[in-house]
Amino acid sequence: MSRSTPMRLCLSALIAKILPLAVGLFWSNLFGSAANGQALEFVSSTMWNTLSDVKVVGNYAYCAYGNALVILDISDPSGPSIVGSEHIPDADYMALEVSGNYAYVAAWAAGFFIYDVSNPENTERIAGFPAERHAISLAVSGDYAYVGDDSSRLRIFNIADPYHPVYMST
Asked: Of the candidates 7, 135, 113, 2, which has an alpha carbon nearest to the alpha carbon of residue 62?
């Protein structure tokens, strides 16, 4: 499997998220005017060339960009601005989830990481596990994080205490 295969595999599942990101991070009212049959309006763009995942929570967009977690303030859709970022070595492709004050990142060859994002301008890596294989997908549900890798394995972590996650099983 080539390094680009995970992106192609995830593309169909993420098309609704990625479509507005074809040229960058677009902010549009997809379910407002579009649902009424009106044309979408381009509002703004932040030019990315390797954006692999994005989650929007409130006024912030959490972006898995190249080898970094980048947080954008999108309170002004016509001018999103970077408020924080964390470099993640060996993370050529990432998937992320945001739940409460935490961002969970599956970071390709780097592994699985948890960041405290309670203050988006001062994020902090609080926990991490090295990759056994390339981490390519991620889901968070309740007290558990599920990390998929490129060998079709699922690693399960108990994240009830994000500062002290526990590896449960493969």
From this structure: 113
**pLDDT value, residue 118:** 96
SS (H, E, C) 117-137: CCCHHHCEEEEEEECCCCEEE
Instruction: Give pLDDT tens digits for 46-90.
Output: 555 678 899 999 999 999 987 889 999 999 988 899 999 998 887
pLDDT of residue 33: 45
Region class of 58: left (phi > 0), else alpha (psi between -120 and 50), else beta = left
Q: Which of 157, 112, 109, 154 is nearest to 133 (CA)?
A: 109
Q: Between 30 and 112, whose confidence is greater?
A: 112
Amino acid code (one letter) for 163: Y
Q: Is 116:153 a contact under the CB 8 Å cutoff?
A: no
pLDDT digits (tens, 9 = 90+) for 17-27: 433 343 344 43
Q: What's the whole-model pTM score? A: 0.72
> CA separation (Å) from 89 to 5, 70, 140?
20, 14, 23
Helix, strand, coil percentages (3-state) for the chain, rounded to 5, are: 15, 45, 45
The owner of tokens 């004050």 is: 101
